[in-house]
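Notes to self after the Tuesday call (sharing in case useful).
The group wants a holo model before anyone commits to mutagenesis around the pocket. I volunteered. Ligand is flavin-adenine dinucleotide. Logging inputs and output together so the record is complete.
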Amino acid sequence: MIDDDHRASRLTADKRPELQISFEFFPPKTDAMEEKFWESINKLAPLKPRFVSVTYGAGGTTRERTLRMVRHITSDTGVPAAAHLTCVGASKGEIDDVVRGFAEVGVKSIVALRGDPPEGIGQPFTPHPQGYQNAADLVAGIRKLGDFDISVAAYPEKHPQSADWDADIDNLKRKIDAGANRAITQMFFRNADYLRFVERARKAGVTAPIVPGIQPIHSFKQISGFAARCGASIPDWLAERFDGLDADPDTHALVAAAVAAEQVTELLDEGVTEFHFYTLNRSNLVLALARLLGRRPD
Ligand code: FAD
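Result:
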């Protein structure tokens, strides 16, 4: 039974180690989407995130937009911006120029990724002939260019292309050893998968923070599609909770809030103090979750 003291200790900042949160956005494609993007950033900025990150489209397709967004976040909101960067379809020289471009606009944080081939995650990855081979190689390259804060990806259910758990954890260790400051996980819906993954990584000597990536389910249909594409599984109990709610957005929204609240408060109880939220450029659910974690707008 959770009593009032327990609830208060979950929420009271002075009773637990400092909470760190970060938010992930994607670069908007249209003017209307851009308006929504800034509206959400402006609502979330007062929560004082460690950074707001902006993704990098497959094959560098959003290079200009990612750069424009991180530049404006840095100059207009006072919140540190992090730029995602992948190895796909570019030589080391081209990628190094992108990194220098980030530095020139004041971006000091990079989420360094291998990326996927344009055909999708299931397809084998062939590096550019003069390019970085994988994320670990990219991290080492970025380290040579400056004093960046670097995050890398981790997979609580194993990356679909890792032969086994040892290969997966070895790869994470290579990325950290190459100079990454932390790992951020792929979305997951079973906290036990995340906790087991952290335990495996710790046993293998990975000491860097492994920040859970939390995906609020704004639309079960959309998120289950994303999950299938990135190799994250949807447990039956979760599908059951949303079953039949496609035509009932109000109940869907309430269930989504309850599911995400359960996930983050359980992680908090497990001692997790850093969270990364996949916002899909929306602020409402994430604002509520941050509040449950004890973080309010400044
Ligand atoms: P890596 O860590 O390089 O590993 C990929 C796979 O290759 C692993 O299975 C690994 O075991 C294997 N591997 C790596 N090196 C070797 C080696 N030397 N020998 C044998 N096997 C090896 N994608 C985007 O396109 N844009 C984004 O902005 C973006 N943001 C993301 C943010 C987060 C937090 C996460 C979790 C993922 C993101 N992705 C993004 C998706 C990511 O690009 C894919 O998951 C991709 O398939 C793997 O990228 P990685 O950086 O994990 O690759």
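Two things stood out.
The pocket of flavin-adenine dinucleotide is lined by residues 55-56, 58, 84, 86, 111, 113-116, 121, 134-135, 153, 159, 161-162, 167-168, 171, 175, 184, 186, 213 (CB under 6 Å).
The chain has a mean pLDDT of 93.
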